[in-house]
Design brief:
Length: 663
């Protein structure tokens, strides 16, 4: 009879306990935990966005966006809904003026459910933030494999990111662009051909710079084809898959090109050419863009910690390229590099809050956390304690969360402030135009968002976004002269300009934010052909420099720039006005008076010149002359307290009766 072998139970050692906690030991959440994870991933973005929204509304008492551009989408969307026309004014300005026609069309659908444009803008951004968070979580699970907790923590960093929450309430297409990018990455990694081709086509419908992602996929897959001979675990697309990708992409992208061509005669939107023209690299330092708007942007706050993992992953990618080993981060890193390179060459400008760079954030986070994981794995090779190795990952993640939550909280203030900033300038100017102008008036402006939506007036866009025929002239030295002729021909009746962009000389605005809302000043002028004078770009630049020098009391520099300004703009009253201030600093009263009188000769209704010259004359005891200028100031601005007090003092000194302004 054969003897049975009885297994001998081995005594457990500490080393066996460490093996139990192997670094790559899987964590398999049960069904309940999976549901909880998914619910948190979906609902947390909505909650965090709502916190920002509630804080801004409570602080500002108005609903607004932190950018002017959202109302461009909404204007097109409203006209699609009302007139079934992709137009910027009723059905009369049909043009490819939306960078993201897909987003605009979806907002038009929103008008079927509500006429509240703010609700549509908020809902669209937050909806795609929620979808992006879930898609990013699924992508992270795919990249981390068994390490579900790592994937969950990575998704959490994305969800609490201060800029992602900020932009989700901006009314812009950014979160939709991120969603499609992440979804395309997931379909690519899963080798799902038809959805991948569709998403790649939709990238163009969302933003033209999505072409960088397509380039990154081509590069990544080329490496896979090369390395698959030696690495059998690399899955390839079949010939049938390729046909599906090409056909689906061709159909979706082809419709996009046809759509733009039919609207404006170009396969790309007007906004693409307009932005490339206005923010031309010849007028912008590419290296400043790279240093301040990319490098500094991605190493501030929580990003500073993430940069450790990101740089490690980049280094590992180059090492893997050298050893001919496929790297899971290739797609993401190449996309980031191509995207930045494209802007570096064509459009070295990240826009306000680094908006153009925000689509890189989820991939930056994913590459960085994978880098943290890989750093911990290396440490695990030199220790038998996997818990200690994993703790390195958790410490880095923990620091990121600590700083990230702090950044999120601090950014609420910025969001609220910027919403009020846009409301007080663009929205209030639009409301003024709607109230005080006629329905057939035409407004020329460079910020067409809120003004286009709320003024309900036909718009001439001097920046070319919705007036494409101006794009080719924008960077001409004589553009302002051409523009004034163009506006006369088009029947423009009002101008709405930020002074930092365009400045009208020798004319008082009918609406202005100058007295209460520095630094940028929005002015609305009545446009009078042959009389209204717009300073050239060079002339306005001199004014901006002189304004800064005034605060520094740099008299000699002010006079120098004033003379340069007069050489190109001899009728600039502001040049003489600022020079008079410089002469006053130098106690040169003769030239002070000459300059001030010349300023008022060129611009008889120059309120500030009359006020300060009146104060000068009062100080010189030339009271009768001073009274004339104080009275002129009050005629131009009856509520001017300084002029009223000055006039009161003069009347008391002369023993005369003060006559109220306007009588």
């Amino acid at each position: 009879m054969k003897k049975m072998k009885i297994p001998i139970k081995k005594k457990r050692t500490k080393r066996d306990d460490f093996k139990k906690y192997d670094f790559d030991s899987p964590f398999r959440p049960n069904r309940t935990l999976k549901i909880i994870f998914n619910v948190v991933i979906v609902l947390l973005p909505v909650f965090l966005a709502f916190v920002y929204y509630r804080f801004a509304v409570k602080q500002n008492n108005v609903r607004s966006f932190p950018l002017d551009d959202p109302w461009i989408h909404l204007t097109f969307a409203k006209n699609i809904f009302e007139y079934f026309s992709f137009s910027f004014f009723k059905n009369e300005m049909v043009t490819a003026g939306s960078t993201s026609p897909l987003f605009t069309i979806l907002e038009a659908v929103g008008f079927f459910f509500t006429k509240n444009e703010m609700l549509i803008g908020y809902a669209m951004g937050v909806l795609f933030f929620m979808l992006s968070a879930y898609a990013f979580y699924r992508l992270s699970v795919l990249e981390f494999g068994k390490e579900i907790i790592f994937a969950l923590l990575t998704a959490g960093i994305f969800i609490i990111d201060k800029w992602i929450v900020f932009i989700s309430l901006s009314g812009m297409e950014t979160t939709m662009f991120i969603f499609i990018l992440v979804l395309a990455s997931f379909f690519y990694k899963k080798r799902m051909a038809l959805p991948l081709g569709t998403m790649l086509g939709l990238l163009l419908w969302t933003r033209p710079d999505g072409i960088a992602f397509i380039g990154a996929i081509i590069f990544d897959y080329a490496l896979i084809r090369i390395y698959s001979k030696n690495q059998l675990d690399l899955q390839l697309f079949t010939g049938k898959d390729f046909r599906k990708i090409i056909l689906s992409f061709a159909v979706v992208a082809g419709l996009y090109f046809v759509f733009n061509y039919l609207l404006s005669g170009s396969i790309l939107p007007n906004t693409y050419n307009a932005k490339l023209t206005y923010y031309s690299p010849e007028f912008r330092s590419r290296w400043d863009f790279l240093e301040y708007e990319v490098w500094e942007y991605f190493k501030s706050g929580a990003y500073y910690v993430l940069m450790i993992g990101f740089l490690y992953s980049v280094g590992k990618l180059f090492y893997d390229l050298y050893t001919k080993t496929y790297n899971q981060n290739t797609l993401y890193i190449v996309f980031i590099l191509l995207f930045v390179l494209m802007y570096f060459i064509k459009l070295p400008y990240a826009h306000r809050f680094g908006r153009y760079m925000m689509p890189l954030i989820p991939f930056f986070i994913l590459v960085a956390t994978v880098g943290f994981r890989d750093i911990a794995r290396i440490i695990n090779k030199y220790t038998t304690n996997a818990l200690f190795s994993k703790s390195i990952f958790y410490i880095l993640i923990g620091i990121t969360y600590f700083i990230g939550v702090k950044n999120y909280d601090e950014n609420r203030e910025l969001y609220a402030l910027q919403c009020k900033y846009i409301y007080d300038r663009q929205v209030m100017a639009a409301q003024w135009l709607n109230k005080y102008t006629k329905e057939d008036d035409i407004v020329a402006t460079h910020d067409v968002g809120a003004i286009g939506y709320y003024s309900d007036r036909r718009i001439i866009d001097v920046a070319g976004l919705v007036t494409p025929e101006l794009i080719g002239k924008i960077n001409d030295l004589n553009y302002v002269s051409y523009l004034q002729t163009y506006m006369k021909e088009k029947g423009v009746t009002y101008l709405a300009f930020l002074r930092e962009w365009y400045r009208v000389s020798n004319q008082n605005p009918q609406f202005t934010t100058a007295n209460s809302l520095p630094p940028e000043v929005m002015d609305v002028y009545k446009f009078i052909p042959g009389e209204t004078e717009i300073l050239s770009k060079e002339g306005n630049s001199f004014i901006e420099m002189m304004t800064k020098l005034v605060s520094q009391k740099a008299a000699q520099q002010i006079i120098y720039l004033g003379n340069r300004l007069l050489a190109i703009e001899p009728r600039s009253s502001l040049a003489y006005y600022y020079m008079s201030y410089a002469y006053q600093l130098m106690k040169d009263n003769v030239n002070y008076e000459k300059s001030m009188l010349k300023a008022m000769e060129l611009f008889p209704d120059f309120k500030d010149a009359h006020l300060y010259y009146g104060e000068y004359l009062k100080g010189e005891k030339r009271l009768d002359e001073a009274r004339i200028h104080y009275e002129k100031t009050l005629q131009l601005e009856p509520a001017n307290v300084r002029a009223a007090n000055g006039l009161k003092e003069i009347n008391e000194s002369l023993g005369t009766v003060q006559v109220p302004a306007g009588n």
